[in-house]
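Batch manifest, entry 17 of 40.
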Amino acid sequence: MAEIAQTPTAVQTVHSRFGKARAGDWALIIIAGIGAAIFSVPLIFMFSTSLRPLHAAYQLPPAWFPTEFEYQNYVTVLTHRIPFYMFGLNSAKITFWVTVGRLVTGSMAAFAFARLRFPGRNILFGLLLASLMVPIQVTIIPIFLLLSKIKLVDNHLSLILPSLTSAFGVFLLRQFFMTMPQELFDAAKIDGAGPWRMYWNIALPQAGPGLAALTIITFNQTWNDYFTPLIYLNTIERMTLPLGIAALRGRLDSGNPSVVMAAVALAILPVLILFLFAQRYFIEGVTMTGIKG
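Output type: structure tokens
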């Protein structure tokens, strides 16, 4: 009888915990929704401004949505005397090779740090992490002098070669490789597999989320890079999209701000499309890199 009397209490306790868990989930969803709305405000205003006529671009207070839709702003970007198409191709070329280079070199180095045993491994990895604390502004002058001596200034190789590897990429993939079961690699060793085969046949096929995360991060960083192309590139034929957008602003910001916003909207489309297609792998990759150190 005592057990029967306690049963409703136990059920009530379970329902209470379930209700609290659901309330907590809804609270997190509401907070995340508010945060997403706040972060989407600049994007909404950017697309809104890109559709305004020139006289409405300077309107104060600014309206959230245009009353006149000026689609000609996008046509102006594509037909402007500043070659927007060529800037896009230059950015695509540089971004492609930098992304591929970081995936190859980062995954190889990360596998070596995660699964191979060699003298000084932890010291080298510590030095690699220490390099993350050195800002690019500190090293830009010696790198520029070196590239100038080998005649690579005003060449896309000056942006590609120094960026083919990344300490952050090595760290990200190393943490991901550390989450893989050691039994897989032990079984491969018993079957006679060497380091290269373990990397190519075991580690790499399972590293999809980590590689997707590094791809998105590298693509976004390289595509939107303004500082290094400004230093290394001189001629308009080799400039990238961020430099082209700055050129659209005109001397002393005399350009049409609506046209500039239209150019920005076109420039961020590849990043948005890539993230929308790979966001699941990106979140999984970033999450799993912190499971095991």
